[in-house]
Amino acid sequence: MTLLVHDVTLTYPDGEHRLTALDGVSLEVPAGTLTAVIGPSGSGKSSLLAVAATLVTPDSGRVVVAGRDTTELGPAEKSALRREKIGIVFQQPNLLASLTAAEQLQVMAHLSGRPARAVRGRALELLDAVGLAEKADKRPHQLSGGQRQRINIARALMNEPAVLLVDEPTSALDHERGAAVLDLLVTLTRERSTATVLVTHDHAHLERMDRTATMTDGRLTPSPATAADPAAVPRA
């Protein structure tokens, strides 16, 4: 099991009270599988990703990444774990305007102290994997929205993460480009044995997912489409 979120509760201050963002949420994601999390805005989907990424510490519960319990880790240890084991694909690519496609990826590996020659080779390999080998020397303004999102995905994979967390990757894309990005995520999850969690509003491709769960008011439950197969959905 590569990612385990167990009985997590997360609250935020809200005036004199506290708002519950996650209410006893549990999620298991094996390596090489993709779990989709759907639900309305404000239901807790982004909070779940933030906790799984160790960006936010929950009030209670456990988060285990690649066999390492993050409960007792300090800020520096969590930062190192994110660099080495967690890839994050944000809704907007947020590429650096002055860098080429290859350099966007190389920056990630340089932060981990990897040698320049190996970094360049790894970047070109990943660009080829996402179908953009010929765009290695192009800058963001020379690329389409779908191409920028593919680079965003490749960048998240640069340090060979065990866990891939993806937040609404198709929201700014048309149907055709969005489908291509979803296909890419499925393929890379299988080939690179990542434990992938995908937050999405697009229900059109849920049949491609290994597991699907619905977030409602901070609680995670199996979706109706897969509830008949309890082994194939996260437990909440």
TrEMBL record:
Molecular function via GO: ATP binding; ATP hydrolysis activity; transmembrane transporter activity
GO-annotated cellular components: plasma membrane
Keyword annotations from UniProtKB, A to Z: ATP-binding, Nucleotide-binding, Transport
UniProt-listed Gene3D superfamilies: P-loop containing nucleotide triphosphate hydrolases
Domain of life: Bacteria
Domain ABC transporter: 3-235
Region of interest: Disordered: 213-236
CDD domains xrefs: ABC_MJ0796_LolCDE_FtsE
Annotated SMART domains: AAA
Sequence ranges of Low complexity compositional bias: 222-236
PANTHER family reported for this sequence: ABC TRANSPORTER RELATED, IMPORT ATP-BINDING PROTEIN
Name of the protein in its database record: ABC transporter ATP-binding protein
Organism: Streptomyces venezuelae
